[in-house]
């Protein structure tokens, strides 16, 4: 990824932070994007990358807002001259049975997870089309094992994570011959605040379908994300890659 530049959303924490660190380690410029309310942690991610010899800065955004999706891309292009990769990773979950999910919670999960991914991809693809062929750019979206099957109490979340795979596949086929690759990762239970802040019995329930009975480390997702963005994955596009210790393989 030496000499490349791009962005990671939700990079103040968890999987996004691990991916941002890994992009930085691999020599890429990183725009560390997250909510204004997460600025301190986001600045910390950027500082960690710089301390390790990388190149990064923080940008506040709300991925649910169209103007922010566009502004993030513009900032990467302004700072590094082009955008080569993007990791649309910011996401939220609401834990409730479907019939008890409020309309407001449903709309918020859709706005952040699904609309946010759509808005990000739209502006990233437009900017990548300005790059020289043949390999103009690579996008990785964070779906979930809940993008490949249902997960109890995560109906709204699972709907958005399935939807992210639809966006991923469509963009992959529409822009393949333009030299833009679009893939998704589908993590299993990864030990981040999204998991660790849940009650222990709920954590155990989410972990139970995994064949490996340990939670994943965010760095284990980052390895897949950065590989998918690299030239090593030059013939890989449109995939929904489980990084999930066999949780969708069967249980
Ligand atoms: N942790 C898991 O077990 C797991 C499993 C599968 C998928 N995922 C997905 O991985 C992604 C990252 O999750 P995580 O586990 O690292 O969670 P996390 O809560 O540690 O990090 C999520 C980050 O997204 C940011 N964010 C939330 N809403 C935002 C918005 N509107 N605009 C910009 N940033 C926003 C948060 O501030 C936070 O820093 C999410 O899409 C999540 O659904 C996580």
Can you describe this structure in just a few lines?
This protein has 251 residues and is α/β, with parallel strands linked by helices.
Q: Any overview of this molecule?
A:
It is a single chain. This protein starts with a strand and ends in an 8-residue tail after the last strand. With about 250 residues, it is an alpha/beta fold. The chain has a single domain, classed as Rossmann fold. Helix content is about 45%, strand content about 15%. The protein contains eight helices and seven strands. The chain has a seven-stranded parallel β-sheet, sandwiched between helices. α1 crosses α8 and α3 packs parallel to α4. Nicotinamide-adenine-dinucleotide binds next to α1, α4 and α6.
């Amino acid at each position: 990824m030496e000499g490349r530049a791009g962005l990671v959303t939700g990079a103040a924490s968890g999987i996004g932070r691990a991916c941002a660190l890994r992009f930085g380690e691999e020599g890429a410029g990183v725009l560390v994007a997250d909510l204004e309310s997460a600025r301190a942690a986001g600045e910390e991610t950027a500082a960690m990358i710089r301390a390790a010899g990388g190149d990064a800065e923080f940008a506040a955004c709300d991925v649910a807002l169209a103007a922010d999706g566009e502004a993030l891309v513009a900032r990467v292009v302004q700072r590094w001259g082009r955008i080569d990769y993007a990791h649309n990773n910011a996401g939220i979950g609401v834990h409730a049975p479907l019939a008890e999910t409020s309309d407001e919670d449903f709309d918020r999960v859709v706005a952040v997870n699904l609309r946010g991914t759509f808005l990000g991809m739209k502006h990233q693809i437009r900017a990548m089309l300005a790059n020289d062929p043949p390999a103009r750019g690579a996008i990785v979206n964070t779906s979930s094992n809940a993008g490949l099957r249902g997960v109890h109490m995560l109906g709204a979340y699972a709907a958005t994570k399935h939807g992210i795979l639809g966006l991923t596949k469509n963009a992959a086929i529409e822009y393949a011959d333009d030299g833009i690759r679009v893939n998704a990762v589908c993590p299993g239970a990864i030990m981040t605040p999204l998991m660790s802040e849940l009650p222990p019995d709920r954590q155990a329930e989410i972990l139970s379908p995994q064949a490996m009975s340990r939670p994943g480390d965010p760095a284990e997702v980052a390895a897949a994300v950065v590989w998918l963005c690299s030239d090593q994955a030059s013939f890989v596009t449109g995939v929904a890659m489980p990084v999930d210790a066999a949780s969708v393989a069967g249980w």
